Amino acid sequence: MSVQERKQRERAERERLIVATARELAEQQGWDAVTTRRLAERIEYSQPVLYSHFRGKREIIGAVALEGAAELAAAVRDAASGADGPRERVAALARAYLDFAARNPAVYDALFQLDGGLAFAQEDTPEPLKDAFAALLESLGEVAGDGVHPGLFTETFWAALHGLATLTRAGRLPPEYVEPRVELLVDRLAVV
Amino acid sequence: MSVQERKQRERAERERLIVATARELAEQQGWDAVTTRRLAERIEYSQPVLYSHFRGKREIIGAVALEGAAELAAAVRDAASGADGPRERVAALARAYLDFAARNPAVYDALFQLDGGLAFAQEDTPEPLKDAFAALLESLGEVAGDGVHPGLFTETFWAALHGLATLTRAGRLPPEYVEPRVELLVDRLAVV
DNA sequence: TTGATTGTCTAGCAGTGCTAGGATCGAATC
DNA sequence: GATTCGATCCTAGCACTGCTAGACAATCAA
């Protein structure tokens, strides 16, 4: 059985290598540069090997997205836990979210811009995605205010952050003044 | 000179046909289906004709985007002008914006998701884009509140709308509860 | 009727995601 | 230790993409 186990380990290791390489390549040169050929060359295997791990390119994007979701959740929780009081907690969360999007544009794209074949807001939504939303809900739910559903509030606040993140990165919003926009969002939307 | 004029007219007409056909095809089957071959076939010309009007596919997307920007500006102004008081004006604007995005997903993608080769938030930004932002600013500037720059407020409110529009359409947010989200945004962000 | 200038098309390039089928290698059996 | 046999991997190729060079035909001025 040891031989089989070793093979399984090696296979899992290669799968991690594929995802990590795809992510690296995407961050370096954008997702357009992540072609199956280039990816295969980088991991030093032939193209068809990719298809023995994933159904196609879309599933590779999905794998990067799930990895990113876990990191985003961790970043958000970490920022929230280091802040005092609801108001500062929400502000720290917002900054951490936008910072993650700015520092990992390709991962953020995989999560929210590209089609990674993932189900959102459904029962069969992968756990990391649900957990990322949960991480937002933990800090945002407590500032929803009376009569406002915490989930609905979180969705709306999240949408605002997402809009700032994408429009800024796409050059639709001037990159300065990120901080005052965050202040505005937090001061007005959150009930502390 | 009349012959030249006729030719120029016919050429301009064909250019409109290209843009309209690209838009129609994109709304019907998504931008992925808008290939140069299919587009050429639909307008009953060969592929290279497209390149005598536009530098490439990206420029065609850009043309659709500009058309959409003008319509979006008109829709927003129309909704705002038919509402009484700042609060209702902002709410009507928000609904009109989200409605436009939902009814014209391909155009909205051309504007804000895809690369149409357009410059945003700069001096050489095309007029329709500037005007669309101006349309938002007209109604949103008056509810920015004391000490908040109207432009900055408009950017932030716009980002929130954009986030709601994209996340909803991509299936990241459940499509029901659009109205309460709008209410929340308007009630909290706008100072009336 | 020429000659030149437009305008348009056919054919092709390099690249894409993905896959069928054959070669190769290693583990288990005799 | 030789031999089967199944898993693993690669070569080669398909149909498609955006884009372009060069041939061809239609139109105009002389």
Automatic annotation (TrEMBL), chains A, B:
Q: Where is the HTH tetR-type domain?
A: 12-72
The record's section on Pfam families has: TetR_C_33, TetR_N
Q: Which domain of life is it from?
A: Bacteria
Alphabetically list the UniProt keywords: DNA-binding, Transcription, Transcription regulation
**SUPFAM superfamilies reported in the protein's UniProt record:** Homeodomain-like (SSF46689), Tetracyclin repressor-like, C-terminal domain (SSF48498)
* Binding region for DNA: 35-54
Citing just one GO molecular function, the answer is: DNA-binding transcription factor activity
Q: What PANTHER family does UniProt report for this protein, alphabetically?
A: HTH-TYPE TRANSCRIPTIONAL REGULATOR BETI (PTHR30055:SF234), HTH-TYPE TRANSCRIPTIONAL REGULATOR RUTR (PTHR30055)
Q: What is this protein called?
A: TetR family transcriptional regulator
Native source species: Streptomyces resistomycificus
